[in-house]
């Protein structure tokens, strides 16, 4: 594809490296007052009474690729919802099929079986609200699950990817609209700082089309790359498909881009012998961020950590070797940026070398909190839940009830009604007894975050089933 060099990049070249840094950072922050303070509700489930809703799933390969995707539609309402699924292959013709999601049930579709291409995105258009759409991928290195987007946007952030030897990271730019979008991609690298490859400037994404970019083509052998997708015109949906290592020691990650925010939470993490939890904090703005890491232990107290994150740069925090983190016990982690400076946070989990595959996975934290969450059932090739965690981010004790979704009527789970959860201490369900295998509705009297881990995996956190907030 022929690309036109961005006029801003030409100007940067004329005025030198200082101007280049300013131009790149301008793209990182966006345009206009408050541009970085975007809504975090990009995967929120539309109201049940809505006449129509749409979902956009940007990532996944064709049937012959390393990670074909499956869409899972979960309907917790008391009436069936019909609609269409449009599969959009990169460089190919879209194909649309009807779909129906039963009341209190689920339906699935494989986009690559509808349209042939190396990479395939999809739009799900529904004649009603209340239905969640998620996406799972599976391949030789493992499997992963991720949320689709309920709206397009002009800016998407990806805090961490790897192009190190054996790893591949593919950025998907999907335009589900009826007018063209023009996109810039800027990268924050480990060795070269901020990079704006000319080929990644002014990328034209035609209406109802998909463009993918292999980050390793421009930043090879980099174990920690952040990406900013910003549109010069129009809007897109951006996703990232990451493959780690080999089938013997690797994994997949499926991430939807995020906006920046000042609070990010992980309802549970576990530091086992030989495993690692590495959190990456990316500051996409002009001001450095001071981020406090608060760990909520099931027993005891851990002093908070403080990370200094440079403007346009990253900082990492690893729980391996931390004496304040008990081995084998689950804990909650919350990242709070001082003075409201927006950041985005992800967590990469690596299992011990002898653990079952997949052994590596990555997930973005949950921004803020919500009182109602829908968690789909574990999709194949997953077999069952490992554990469910609830973390209180309200600042006061809350009451939580977990219900299964069947026949359109949430049924509270015996023993999981009005659970009292206090700030800083995760409420854990499982692994013994395990949480229910059905789709779950988690409700609370105040804002919470939730995480459902699935098996088979090498260690908790490798595969996280996405939880979606309900209006």
Please explain how this structure is put together.
This protein is mainly beta and 471 residues long. It has two helices and 35 strands. Strand 7 and strand 8 form a beta hairpin.
Give a topology summary:
Layout: H1 7-15, H2 17-29, E1 53-57, E2 69-74, E3 81-89, E4 95-101, E5 106-109, E6 120-126, E7 132-139, E8 142-147, E9 155-161, E10 168-175, E11 181-188, E12 194-195, E13 203-205, E14 209-214, E15 225-233, E16 237-246, E17 249-256, E18 263-270, E19 276-282, E20 289-297, E21 305-309, E22 314-318, E23 330-337, E24 344-350, E25 360-364, E26 366-367, E27 370-375, E28 384-392, E29 398-406, E30 409-412, E31 419-421, E32 427-429, E33 440-455, E34 464-465, E35 468-469
Helix pairs in contact: 1-2
